[in-house]
Amino acid sequence: MLKPLRQGLPPLDPAAVSDAASCALPARYEAVREARRFTRDTLGQWDVGEHFDDICLVVSELVTNALRHAVPATDAGCAEHAASVRLHLMRWTERLVCAVRDPSHETPVPRDSDDFSAESGRGLFLVDSFADSWGWHPLAGTLDGKVVWALFRLRPTG
Q1: Following DSSP, what letter does each residue of 110-140 receive, concatenated?
Q2: What's the distance, CA 75 to chain centroid?
């Protein structure tokens, strides 16, 4: 059910972005709540309709995964890595992308578990279930780490 893990974002014209917003998140679990609040506020301004709850859920999962698997535990109190995770929201007329940047080069790997009562391990499964597509790619140039993204198709307004 999960798509290939390493895939770039589908072609989207950066010049056609209707709206974009981003926020730096500290390397602590309270950042998930901050990411949800930022996403709710931003999506409320953008009027994304029926995808509102799905997008908020996917953002929570992507940020949780970045904090749990991509930020070393030793960085949690380090000022140098205080904002090592960054959330980006970008909206085009008919698409919205949520992207979470983190400092790790590790491939995001979905867990293969039949234990549906487990409290963790289903983040990428949820992302795959609620987003229209998702993937990840390593960062290049002076940026270190990777971006994990999820794309939602939106109905045209009007």
Answers
A1: ------TT-SSS-HHHHHHHHSSEEEEEE--
A2: 20
> Residue 74 CB: number of other CB atoms within 10 A?
9
Asked whether 128 and 3 are in contact (CB, 8 A), the reply is yes
Between CA 35 and CA 27 the distance in angstroms is 12
Write the pLDDT tens digit of every residue in 98-131: 999 999 988 887 766 555 544 555 788 899 999 9
Strands (E), the chain: 19-25, 85-91, 95-102, 133-138, 146-153
pLDDT (tens digit, 9 = 90+) per residue, 21-61?
999 999 888 999 999 999 999 999 998 878 899 999 999 99
Predicted TM-score (pTM) above 0.90: no
